[in-house]
Amino acid sequence: MESKNNIQKYAVIAGIFVCSFFPFLIFSDSYFIFQCIQICDFGISWNPIFWGILFPLFIVFLFWKTAKKLSFSLNQITYFKACSQFSFGVSSKITIALFIIYAIGLFMNGISVVLHSQIPYQILFSILMILFLSFVLMILTFISSLIIIKASQNTQTLNQTK
User: Fold this and answer.
1) 58-77: b or e for each residue (b if 16 or more CB lie within 10 Å)?
2) In the chain, which ranges are continuous DSSP H helix?
3) Is 156's pLDDT higher than 70?
């Protein structure tokens, strides 16, 4: 039972580190918020709240939930299989969530372009932003999964030798 709590604790800590760059980029004087707005625009006051606070909390929740599911089979699978299951579980849900957020944004806000010929380019640019953000989060998730699984397996072996 102790090892199950350890992997969840390590996952939450790693999720916080992975998500720490979101508020920094959103609330600093960078253009990252404009790329997030291309995915979905929640308005002037809600964009920083959603992309800087709520979305990172969602990612931390995904880290915790995936680690909770993985903790039951951690002893039966190999190190790299556990890392790949963790990173795939988190990354696939993040990508699906970004596409759902994009679809909700299209439904709520519509597409605002001057010419109808710009619509495919705006949709293509938004999908590229989703894929870029998903790719960056996949890399960070895989790196953090290597650390999470290794740390939780080390504590399991320490608990077994006691």
Assistant:
1) bbbebbbebbeebbeebeee
2) 2-19, 21-27, 32-39, 46-49, 55-70, 79-109, 119-161
3) no
